[in-house]
Amino acid sequence: LIHALWVNVRAFLKAVRIIREFRPDWIIGTGGYITGMVVLAGRILGCRCAIQEQNSIPGLTNRLLSKIAHRVFLAFPDSSGGFPKSKTLLTGNPLRRELTVGREKKNGSYVLILGGSLGASSINKTAAEAIQLLKSQGINIKVVHQSGKQDYQQVKDAYREMGIDADVKDFIDDMASVYSSAALVISRCGGITLSELSATGLPSIMVPFPHATDDHQSFNARYVANQGGGWLIPDGYLSPERLAVEIKVRLFNPERLRQASANMKRINLGAGADRIAREIVGV
What we know:
The protein is α/β, with parallel strands linked by helices. Helix content is 47%, strand content 14%. It has twelve helices and ten strands. Helix 1 packs across helix 2, helix 5 (121-136) packs parallel to helix 6 (152-162) and helix 8 crosses helix 11 (254-267). The radius of gyration is 21 Å and the shape is elongated.
């Protein structure tokens, strides 16, 4: 506790020095302990301050900072009532420009499996086995699988042993291109991931990371599922059999898939950059 206090005092003093030199008009904190002292210092020095919450359930730092911030920009509705209503604006998350501008959604030709984030080994293993089950039923599906570095060789070997020609990558640099040609996604449910899928109109079979802080990924997924943009499988219920059924039911119903894509787009979770910029310029 003494060490933490000292670290925060040093951070506050350093933030004061930087803010005095830079003289920002606005300071926007995006959550996490690292933003706490910067936003606090900015508020004391007379800057306009905002926080931006990426998930359905706010973290501790953003809950505390919301009391002194001038604006609270939300990606998801504040279902927990954690923020002062008079300050909140539902904007969606800001995303890289290449995900939101100049990319036309093509007719999807493959299932995109995003198993590369922390704690997604269950998706990596189960998804590969589900694809094998479908193949045994005579259903061959084109797959692009981002596995993450840790599971890359294991996933690649699994597909090879099954005789499945999957495109396995440990990391994908150009996500915009990959999104534009996918038909269906299997993924975790972090706020930014779901916002990218919303911006590109991609429905998802969502498997929340069960150890996320305050179980916020489950709340994110429920919001998307309730809006008709995807389908939720709790991690504890994830199995090759369950996932294979979900893929088959969702992928081979073109009309429902198109409707889910439209719903995902309509939620507008990825529109934050423009909305936040217009709000700041207008104040």
